[in-house]
Amino acid sequence: MRLRIRALSAALCLGLVGLTGCTSATPEDVVRKDCSHWDLPKPQIDSSELVTNLGWVSDHADILSAAVEAKIARQLQQLESATQHQVVVVTVENLHRVPIADYTRALGNTWGVGRVGENDGVILLVAPNEREVRIAVACGLETVLTDQKASNIIQTVILPYFREGQYESGVSEGITRIARTLESD
Asked: pTM for this structure?
């Protein structure tokens, strides 16, 4: 996610989808947009995740139980071992009035999600208080996890659970579908 990002987002209340294709933004363009005043969370890392120095699950909105966090973290660790693609789940209490696309891009660049030079990271970002969710896919994976596939995951897997207040199930099933898509590459 360091150079360019292709992403998809949805407003939970309406289920609207907005697509943003890869741009030709350079790293300098990303740096020029000052996000230092944004309240970006730090990755939540436990001792089992120190190998990569990045937490697979950072639940800052506290919508996931410890058991579900552990299950998703194991799943994402296995996915990364098998494919080398790094996928993270991040929940935030709020976006601080920052558009979710900008927030997710800044988070991915700040955290360094994905391998440098491969541009192969994915972030599932959930902001329950704003009722927004985003699957941000770095350009290195855009042919595998396309906008259409990401939209389908959000619309048919994640949002039905979220509309029922079942955030754990939505996140868990969404990650399972993302993982299957990346493993089929």
From this structure: 0.78
